[in-house]
Write a structure and sequence with these properties.
The complex is a heterodimer of chains A (215) and B (628). Chain A is of the alpha+beta class. Chain A is built from 8 helices and 8 strands, in the order αβββααββαβααββαα. The longest helix of chain B has 21 residues. The chains are: A alpha+beta (215), B alpha/beta (628).
Chain lengths: 215, 628
């Protein structure tokens, strides 16, 4: 098995209410142990950008400006890049690694939302989902949960998304991958046996908070 | 016609607004008014500005360029880690890496089955396998981690649940959440005390932490030191919680012991406290003489080193080591100096003598983890305590009174020549009489105990009876033969003690185990017993708590009834009062409460006060003697 097959990337972008968007990229080995961690300095959007990019601003900032820079900085070859922010999927245009959006499946989302609210950290870091009021808990089924949202976001270069539900996680993969849906499912299921695909994003958040404290 | 003329006046306008720009647009007044004063005022001329635009004049537009598409520079900070590799998970558990026993197929069978189920589309099983806990336990960032990279290396570790979820890291039972917190606490601790109340699983938490650290090569050599009677218990627990870890007990002749101390191929060694002193030359020597530096030294029942001047404490402190943990249910037995003694082993100089209890709590707070049974929400059996006041029989009272009067008189006659030992001797003598009259053999406590035991035996239950004297235990054994008692005390050879415990556990006819506080109060798991009798009282409540915790611990199912016998109008009543006060000391220091009396231990004044004696003057040498 190649090194890349054993490493997984997790890319998240959070918003600091004062300073702007901060990206974090965590590379883990298959046991979930950290190999690399990269974070950006805060990125601010300008008013002209907001006006002229409109709805496609988030994919530009999250995917191209932050995501591409972070992944490009990594020394390790990862097999996959997971993200918990939909606009990061725009990164797919700049990398040949599959970029996979992961979220809780609707049946678990409500509980998780409540749980997250209870465990709110003290620093004012917001996730894209929370910030945009787009939380998937408002949706009623898988179709409306991911597909509609993906298709409604301009700036994403991938038209066709495959959705896979494993355990309590819902994953959206770019549809152009060569392996079949069942093969994807099988591989991801084995990976998820030892690694919760959502949990590393909490680590990224904690690490970003620590870096902001240190800054 | 390219001009646009715009004029306007009040009252009336006529404008063809449908006309596009580029045509004439005229706005002209058309007014007819009757001439009145008001009308004159109204029709007075108003200055109206007229602006004329000529669209034909094309001024060169100014261009503003906005760097919308230009990539602004995004600075990146990077950290790189060398992740620990789980030796067993990665199949490195070969003969070459001797520290680990081979992992049997059975240990990974569950995972294999799960994968097969998933592959076969068994969704139900897959869901069960992939359901991860909503609450996770993160490895704690040590307070003394200063560099950001160090903090991140802890923060970015997977939660404990993920680590424990590894298929080859099979655990016999799912640890309780508080136990996971304990593991996370120890995992990153350079020096620490795990001070959970007895019965909450300190042993398991320590073993699980050691196991994780050994498997990832963050530790390679661990020394565990415990009281001699607990060595087999630790071996058993290692077999249960870390079956793949090779554990060696340091014993045998001096050649063997020397080899065991100095070998670099043994991941976990267990030594008893007595051996520390005897074998000091084997470990406290330069590396070129075979000395080894342990990655971790763990002291179980670490209150054994509370006295810094004791040879045991000195020997423990001389062990070359990188990390130090202490396990004890009673870090403060008599006074906060006990804690100072333990910290002298953990981090010399870290905790100074003479601080106020609140200051002690502030200093050591980060390095002590203590939970009581009330703190943790676990399914412990219910516990009831009762103090049974017994009135001595006539002959007992006569013997007692004679001994007390004569003893007190002797002490008074000694004047300033009296010593603490003289008082002790009298106290011990009186307590023994309270247990039974050595002349007549009468014992009110025994009568009460025998009556209780009838009921206990009839219901098929078991009881632990504690005394501080082997003579008392022997006396009780002869009087309680009907309940098939077994004995566990200092006169029972170590080689037989496991058999005694096993008989008490498995023999349905054996209803009583007679234990001395010294031999039986720590480390044993006797949760199948439902009754604990403290036939006489120990000097400090922590030891009594330890004794009670043999039965009242995790795994017990039935209610535990604790009975303390106190003889009315005797020295036992006076000691009981002091013990109650001492019990508060530990609570205050460990909770960081303020305003406590700095010295509530059983000091000289209190000991002399048992007989209304005053502490003699000019006896500086004895200082603040504590009884423990």
């Amino acid at each position: 098995m190649s090194e890349a097959a054993e490493l997984l990337g997790f890319l998240s972008v959070v918003e600091h209410v004062k300073f702007g968007l901060i990206g974090g990229y965590l590379v883990l080995n298959k046991a979930g142990r950290p190999v690399e961690f990269h974070c950006t300095t805060p990125v601010r959007t300008t008013r002209p950008q907001e006006i002229l990019y409109g709805d496609s601003l988030a994919p530009f900032i999250y995917g191209e400006q932050i995501g591409q820079t972070l992944v490009g900085k990594s020394r390790s070859e990862t097999a996959l890049v997971f993200t918990n922010a939909i606009p990061v999927l725009a990164l797919q245009e700049f990398t040949d690694k599959p970029v996979i959006y992961v979220t809780l499946s609707p049946k678990k989302t409500d509980a998780a939302t409540n749980n997250a609210a209870n465990n709110r950290e003290t620093l004012p870091l917001l996730s894209y989902e929370n910030d945009n009021g787009n939380n998937s808990g408002n949706k009623t089924n898988n179709e409306s949960l991911v597909s509609v949202r993906l298709h409604n976001i301009p700036g994403l270069c991938v038209d066709n998304w495959e959705e896979i539900e494993i355990g309590h996680k819902l994953l959206a993969l770019p549809g152009h991958l060569k392996i079949t849906r069942e093969q994807q499912r099988e591989k991801l299921t084995v990976l998820m046996k030892t690694l919760d695909f959502l949990e590393p994003f909490e680590r990224i958040r904690l690490a970003l908070e620590e870096t902001q404290r240190a800054a | 016609m390219n001009n646009i003329s715009v004029t306007s006046q009040w009252f009336q306008t006529s404008c063809n607004t449908s006309q596009p720009f580029g045509c004439n647009v005229s706005v002209l007044p058309s007014v007819d008014f009757h001439i009145t004063g008001w009308n004159q005022a109204i029709t007075r001329g108003i200055d109206i500005g007229v602006q004329t635009f000529n669209p034909a004049i094309r001024s060169k537009p100014q261009v503003f360029s906005l760097p919308i598409g230009k990539r602004s520079r995004t600075d990146i900070k990077s950290w790189f880690f060398v992740p620990p590799v789980d030796i067993v998970d990665n199949g490195h558990n070969t003969e070459k890496s001797e520290p680990f026993r081979k992992v049997t197929n059975e240990q990974s069978s569950d995972f294999a089955a799960a994968v097969i189920d998933i592959e076969q589309g068994n969704e139900q099983n897959a869901d069960n396998c992939l359901e991860l806990p909503e609450k996770v336990t993160r490895i704690q960032v040590p307070r003394d981690a200063i560099k950001l990279v160090d903090k991140l290396s802890y923060l970015l570790q997977p939660p404990l649940e993920s680590i424990l979820n590894l298929p080859t890291l099979e655990l016999p039972f799912e640890p309780y959440p508080y136990q996971k917190q304990g593991i996370a606490f120890l995992y990153s601790a350079e020096f620490a005390i795990l001070a959970d109340e007895m019965g909450l699983g300190k042993t398991m938490q320590a073993i699980a932490s050691i196991r994780l650290l050994l498997r990832t090569c963050e530790l390679r050599s661990v020394l565990l030191v415990c009281p001699k009677p607990l060595v087999t218990n630790w071996q058993r627990e290692f077999d249960l919680w870390a079956p793949e870890i090779n554990v060696q007990v340091i014993d045998g002749n001096h050649h063997r012991r020397k080899w065991l101390w100095q070998s670099d191929r043994i991941p976990v060694r267990i030594a008893n406290y007595e051996l520390l002193h005897r074998d000091r030359e084997y470990y406290d020597c330069p590396s070129n003489m075979g000395g080894t530096t342990f990655d971790l030294v763990v002291l179980d029942e670490s209150q054994r080193i509370k006295n810094v001047s004791s040879s045991t404490s000195q020997a423990a402190r001389s062990i070359p080591r990188k990390r130090s943990w202490a396990l004890t249910g009673t870090p403060v037995e008599n006074s906060q100096e006990d804690l100072v003694g333990i910290f002298e082993f953990l981090a010399p100089g870290f905790l100074q003598s003479g601080l106020k209890p609140s200051q002690v709590a502030d200093v050591v707070g980060e390095h002590i983890l203590r939970r009581t049974k009330d703190d943790v929400n676990i399914d412990l059996p219910e516990r009831s305590d009762r103090d049974v006041q017994v009135v001595l029989s006539e002959s007992q009272w006569s013997t007692y009174k004679q001994a007390e009067d004569e003893g007190s008189m002797r002490l008074n006659e000694m004047g300033d020549g009296i010593s603490i030992q003289n008082v002790f001797e009298l106290v011990m003598r009186l307590k023994q009489i309270c247990n039974y009259d050595p002349i007549s053999g009468e014992s009110t406590k025994l009568e009460r105990l025998a009556a209780d035991m009838e009921e206990i035996a009839q219901s098929g239950r078991k009881a632990i009876i504690f005394s501080q004297w082997v003579e008392t235990l022997t006396f009780l054994k002869s009087r309680l033969e009907g309940f098939n008692p077994v004995e566990y005390h200092g006169r029972i050879p170590h080689s037989q003690r496991d058999l005694v415990i096993e008989k008490f556990r498995s023999d349905n006819e054996c209803h009583i185990i007679l234990m001395s506080y010294g031999a039986g109060s720590v480390g044993l798991n006797l949760q199948f017993a439902q009754y604990v009798f403290l036939f006489d009282r120990w000097w400090n409540p922590a030891v009594e708590d330890q004794a009670i915790a043999r039965a009242h611990r995790i795994g017990g199912k039935d209610k535990v009834l604790v009975t303390r016998f106190i003889s009315v109008d005797t020295v036992e009543e006076r000691i009981d009062r002091i013990l109650r006060e001492k019990r508060e000391l530990s609570k205050l220091i460990l909770s960081g409460a303020r305003g406590m009396n700095d010295s509530t231990g059983l000091n000289q004044e209190e000991i002399f006060g048992l007989f209304n004696l005053k502490k003699p003057k000019k006896r500086k040498a004895e200082g603040h003697l504590m009884v423990g």
